[in-house]
Amino acid sequence: MLTRRSFIVRAAGVTAATAAVAYAGAGTTFADPGPSTTGLRTYIDGRLVDQNKVVEWERRRLSVAAARLRKDYVGVLTGELDSLLARVAVDVDDVSAARAVLAQARVLIGSDRLRELLTGELVASEAATRATLTASGGRWAMATVEIVSDHGTAQGFIDALDTARVNNDHAFWVDACPDHYIIATLADGRQEVVEVTGGAMFASRFLIEYTDPAKGVVPADPSYPYAVAGAATLADGEVIGGVCHQFRDEPGGGFRSQLEVAFPAAVPGLYISEHQWHLATEFGNWIEAYLR
Questions:
Q1: What pLDDT is recorded for position 83?
Q2: What are the structural domain ranges in the chain?
Q3: What's domain 120-291's superfamily in CATH?
Q4: Can you give the pTM of this predicted structure?
Q5: Which one has a higher pLDDT value, 213 or 64?
Q6: Are the CB atoms for 284 and 144 separated by under 8 Å?
């Protein structure tokens, strides 16, 4: 288990210069987005929502993520990480700058130490997931969001996602949402995800299996010709949910995304509604990145 003392010992000798080298190029996909080129329209429960509300949700989660890391790593790296995250905790009016700070903090900590840092949360969340799965009796609850972009194509966006997955583009995946901690492509093609889902209090770890459609729990909509779908499992292979993100070109140009995530039906309603905002944030940012 990683403790503050062992982290400080292992981090000794890491200077601001080496941290800057480690961070070079990380997080730049979302840190400086420039003006929006998409004209995104986001629909939750079939209703158009103000894009400013999506930004507000991300702003709030930036502070939560910064507080989580700062609490456990306060004072390490000769105070660099503490001061870095303190800026996010105090002021996230500049969302682009706050994204960059959080991205840099993740790089400073590193994926292995993030796993150790979150060990207690992951154990607790797995136990809760198994209990909820049992209580759900094979039923699923869906978090569904639609996003329409005035530009780009469904195939182009699918290609961007596939390239990021194959290349294991950490910055692309993780920096799109404050609640992402690790998203990595494993040697067998599965995607490891460590994130805070929905309205959960703790981070969870699961794997997404894209290669076996038979395991999927989210039915496909035949009106969408493009899809990224798979089952979400625990490390032992038990299916705990799934994703079915579908895309189609719009007649007047641009494309539409229908994004669905299945959770065990016994999760609270707030869990589902919060994950809709999570989906709106991450996919909105991924679409913006694809179009730049």
A1: 58
A2: 4-36+48-115, 120-291
A3: START domain (3.30.530.20)
A4: 0.85
A5: 64
A6: no
Would you say residue 192 has pLDDT above 50? yes
Angle at 183 (CA atoms; ends 179, 186), nearest 5 degrees: 160
pLDDT on residue 138: 94
Q: Which residue has the higher pLDDT, 233 or 81?
A: 233
Give the model confidence (pLDDT) of 177-191 as tens digits: 999 999 999 999 899
Q: Which two tokens stand for residue 30?
A: 């979302």
Q: Which is nearest to 264 in space by CA: 291, 236, 238, 282?
A: 238
Tokens linked to 245: 């993100």
- Burial letters 96-132, b for 16+ CB under 10 A, else e: eebbbbbbbbbbbbebebbbbbbeebbeebbeebeeb
Whether residue 114 contacts residue 194, with contact meaning beta carbons closer than 8 Å, is answered with yes
Strand partners, 149: 255
Residue 233 phi/psi, 5-degree rounding, is -130, 160
**Could you tell me the strand order of the sheet in which 180-185 lies?**
47-49, 41-44, 140-149, 255-264, 239-249, 226-233, 204-209, 191-195, 180-185
Query: What is the pLDDT, as a whole number, of residue 39?
Result: 83
- Which residue is listed with tokens 């004209």? 39
pLDDT at 104: 86
Which residue type, as a one-letter code, is found at position 169? Answer: D
**Cα gap 150→92, rounded to integer Å:** 28
| β-strand pairing of 191-195 with 255-264 | unpaired
- Residue 274, CA distances (Å) to 117, 263, 281 in order: 24, 12, 11
